[in-house]
Amino acid sequence: MGDGTASVRRRHHPPVLEALLFDVNGTLTDTSALGGVWGRPDLGDRILQQAVSTAIVETLLDRPTRAFGDHLQAALEVVVADAKLDEGLIERAGAVATALPARPGARQALGILRDAGLRLAALTNSGAEAGRRTLEACGLAPTLDLVLGVDAVGCFKPHPDVYAYAVSKLRRDRSEVALVATHPWDLAGAARCGLQTAWVKHDARAWPAVFPPPDVEAITLEDLATELVALAA
C-alpha cells in the first residue's frame, strides 16, 4: 500500500474462515463525531486512544473496576483541557459517544459477509449492553449474530481472556475466527491468541513494525469484506 492505490492485501493463506469478530469503536463506527461536538472531528481518534490507554493500564495493574464509559469520560476531560476547548460541551460529547454513526460501507460490508454464510459478532471494550445500544443506534445491530462485551470477562482488550471468551461464544476453533479492527493493538492481541487478523485502515496509516503483520488488510470495510469472503470459500 505504499503508493496508496491498492486497497487490499492478503499476507498469506490462513485456514478457512468460519466466523468474524468486529471491534466496534472506530472500526464499525466513526469516532470523528466525538470531536465534531467542538468542530474538531480530528480529535475523535485521539479521545478514543486516550480512553483505551487508561483502560489498558487498569487491566495491567489489576482487574478493572471501571466501565469503559468512565475511561471515555476521563479521556474527554483530558483531551478537551489539552486542546483548550469548551468544557461545557463534554456532556454533549458523552451523549454522542453512545450513538456514533456507522462507518461508510459498514452495513454493506456486513451484508456481504452474512450472505457468504459467515457468523458475525461484535466484540467491544464498551461492554455488551453499551455496545448493543451503539449498534442499534447506527443501524448495524440486525446484521450481527452476537454482541459481546468485555464486561463478561472483567478486563479490557487486548487481554487474552477477552478473545478466548469471544471464541467460546462463537463455538469455533480459534484458527477459524478472524478479528476485524482498525486498531493494531487490538489485532496484535487477537493474533497472540491464535485468531486470524483483518486490518481495515480507513485512512492511510502505517502498521507498527513491532506487531505481527495482519493476515488481510484493506482501506475500506467493503474491500475487506470481499477479501474475507475469498478466505471463507
Give your account of this protein's structure.
The protein is of the alpha/beta class and 233 residues long. The protein folds into 2 domains: 155 residues, Rossmann fold (3-Layer(aba) Sandwich); 66 residues, no CATH class. 42% of the residues lie in helices and 13% in strands. The protein contains 9 helices and 7 strands. Strands 1-7-6-5-2-3-4 form a 7-stranded mixed sheet, sandwiched between helices. α5 runs parallel beside α9.
Uncertain segments of ≥5 residues (pLDDT<50)? Answer: 1-8
> What is the CA-based Rg, rounded?
17 Å
Strand content: 5-15%
Shape assignment? globular
User: Cα distance, first to last residue?
Assistant: 25 Å
Mean pLDDT: 92
Instruction: Just give the CATH class of the largest domain.
Output: Alpha Beta
Helix-strand string: EEHHHHHEHEHEHEEH
Tell me the CATH architecture of the largest domain: 3-Layer(aba) Sandwich
What's the arrangement of secondary structure elements?
Blueprint: E1 8-10, E2 19-22, H1 32-36, H2 43-61, H3 68-82, H4 90-97, H5 106-115, E3 119-124, H6 128-137, E4 146-149, H7 160-170, E5 177-181, H8 184-192, E6 196-200, E7 216-218, H9 221-232
Helix pairs in contact: 2-3, 5-9
Brief synopsis:
This protein is of the alpha/beta class and 233 residues long. It has helices at 32-36, 43-61, 68-82, 90-97, 106-115, 128-137, 160-170, 184-192, 221-232, and strands spanning 8-10, 19-22, 119-124, 146-149, 177-181, 196-200, 216-218. Helix content is 42%, strand content 13%.
